[in-house]
Design goal:
The chain folds into four domains: 5-9 and 80-170, Reverse transcriptase/Diguanylate cyclase domain (Alpha-Beta Plaits, 2-Layer Sandwich); 14-79, MutS, DNA mismatch repair protein, domain I, CATH 3.40.1170; 182-227, DNA polymerase, domain 1; 244-341, DNA polymerase, Y-family, little finger domain (Dna Ligase, domain 1, 2-Layer Sandwich). The chain is 38% helix and 20% strand. The chain has helices spanning 13-21, 49-52, 62-68, 79-94, 119-134, 146-153, 169-173, 186-196, 201-205, 209-216, 218-227, 258-279, 312-322, 352-357; strands at 5-10, 30-32, 46-47, 73-75, 100-104, 107-111, 138-143, 161-164, 244-255, 282-283, 286-293, 298-304, 332-340, 343-344. The strands form four sheets. A five-stranded mixed sheet has the order 5-6-1-7-8. The chain has a four-stranded antiparallel sheet with strand order 9-13-11-12. Strands 3-2-4 form a three-stranded mixed sheet. Helix 6 (146-153) links the parallel strand 7 (138-143) and strand 8 (161-164). Helix 4 (79-94) runs antiparallel to helix 5 (119-134), helix 10 crosses helix 11 and helix 12 packs antiparallel against helix 13.
Length: 363
């Protein structure tokens, strides 16, 4: 049976939800990020397409976004609302297949290989249901594997529908930038460009397996050799287990006082414990604290406990004690807390993995 995968990607999800909740914002440049104050430190989580026309994009500092579009409307992130819409989306998709892999709040793979309908017609039906029931738009890619479906979903955003079959992959991917491929980020892209003059997927296809392995190592070289040809056998994974839970905050004014850092680390630890242990039923074993200084130098310190635990006081105090392992001789810009080394607590609900799968922000 040939594989048929859909990649469903909501359009400017956070901003679209906000425009839905506030109809007066439709058609306006909306930027969602931080606490909604662009004069404070923080980054863009999502920008509406009206705001993107000004060059605003995710991860951009809010202050930069304000300079590019002073008339933009800035709103705080409301994860509770976005998770509600995400849950409705995932339930809608599960009506068409039990094989739904949520990769963020606003993206999912759906394996429809078992369906007898025309896959493009089915994708249109799903788009219509999303528009009718959620009052939002989605771009959907149809492909013979996850790689091609994801690339296809990005080809006609927003509100698009594109198809790439493996037989057509060479022609459809040839002129696209090499960075559309999974596992080929900016650093690898720069390395391939410098060493081999590679800019597009078509350029990459011209390089032998041996040369790629010489440049990137045996595993990464072979991986890119396969995916630039549209080959990907990774399955749609329905049981997703988180690797860690974390929270971090950027101070509006760089901090020197240790007692301020202690209070913030304790507060972040409480938040991480609530989501990791209380909500999702995981017991962490490793506690990590991250410090970013005023000059953007970032350091981490970690402690692995004797065993995984759900003891809130023990975990939070472990995070606080890690502060003693930093040399606090410079102002601190950011602090973060992470729990990892997770083990499912006895009796934890089966929904914990699914909840965590949709906990990561997306746009």
């Amino acid at each position: 049976m040939p594989r048929i995968i859909l990649h469903v990607d909501m359009d400017a999800f956070f901003a679209a939800v906000e425009q839905l909740r506030r109809p007066e914002l439709r058609g306006q440049p909306v930027v969602v990020g931080g606490d909604g104050n662009p004069r404070k430190r923080g980054v863009v989580s999502t920008a509406s397409y009206e705001a993107r026309a000004y060059g605003i994009h995710s991860a951009m500092p809010l202050r930069t976004a304000l300079k590019r579009c002073p008339e933009a409307i800035f709103l705080p992130v409301d994860f509770a609302a976005y998770r509600d819409f995400s849950g409705r989306l995932m339930r809608l998709l599960q009506a068409y297949s039990p094989l739904v892999e949520a990769i963020s709040l606003d993206e999912a793979f759906v394996d429809i290989s078992h369906r007898e309908e025309d896959p493009v017609a089915l994708a249109r039906t799903i788009k219509e249901r999303i528009r009718g029931e959620l009052e939002l738009t989605a771009s959907i890619g149809v492909g013979s594997n996850k790689l091609l479906a994801k690339i296809a979903a990005n080809m006609q955003k927003p509100d698009g529908l594109s198809v790439i079959w493996e037989a057509d992959a060479e022609e459809r991917l040839r002129d696209l930038p090499a960075t559309v491929l999974w596992g080929l980020g900016p650093k690898t892209d720069a390395r391939l460009n410098e060493a081999l003059g590679i800019k597009t997927v078509g350029d990459l296809r011209q390089v032998s397996l041996e040369r790629l392995q010489e440049t990137l190592g045996p595993n990464h070289g072979e991986y890119l050799y396969e995916i630039c040809r549209g080959r990907d056998d990774s399955p749609v994974v329905t049981e997703w287990e988180p690797k860690s839970y974390s929270r971090e905050t950027t101070f509006q004014v760089d901090v020197r006082r240790r007692d301020t850092l202690v209070r913030k680390i304790r507060a972040l630890g409480e938040e991480v414990w609530a989501e990791c242990v209380e909500e999702d039923g995981y017991l962490p074993r490793t506690v990590t604290v991250k410090i970013r200084f005023y000059n953007f130098r970032t350091h981490t310190r970690a402690q692995t406990l004797l065993e995984a635990t759900g003891d809130r006081a023990l975990l939070v105090e472990a995070a606080v004690r890690l502060l003693d392992r930093f040399t606090l001789d410079r102002p601190v810009r950011l602090v973060g807390v992470r729990f990892s080394g997770l083990r499912r607590a006895a009796g934890a609900g089966a929904e914990a993995g699914a909840t965590a799968a949709t906990a990561a922000p997306g746009s």
